[in-house]
Amino acid sequence: MVESPRFNLNQLNPDAYRHLMQMEALIARNVEPTLYHLIKLRASQINGCAFCLEMHTDQALRHGETPERMMALDAWEESPLYTDKERAALRWTEELTLIADTGASREGYEELQAHFSEEEIGWLIFAAVQINSWNRIAISSRSQYDPAMFGGAPAKQKVAETA
Questions:
Q1: pTM higher than 0.70
Q2: Residue 103 burial (CB < 10 Å; 0-12/13-18/19+)?
Q3: Cβ contacts of residue 11 below 8 Å, gap of 6+?
């Protein structure tokens, strides 16, 4: 059963919410959009954040991401649909999302260095930290995604099935 939202975060502390949105925009200007969508989706899968999975799936599709790549994201290591560069970023995203277990390994960092500059790695760190923050906010507040929140089409009303 889906729990009702606990509160509307952007009304609880508008200044903090505004700063998170500003950080989101800054990261988006510095990380390639397709890669940023993959990072957001992978961290949200790991964290089990339905709000973020729905939102970032919707956004990724609008930006041209394929359903096949999104469906294979949970198996990115074995899928030929991802580049080595994307795999390095996804590995790093997983390491930062599960940092208590991984410690942000030297191997993961060295793999990043083969594909990204020091500045780009900094932005990838911010990207992973940002989506993990959003996941924790959405999960703890029990937020429900509606595309109309961000200027998209309103959510479709579910119609009860007849027997």
A1: yes
A2: exposed
A3: none
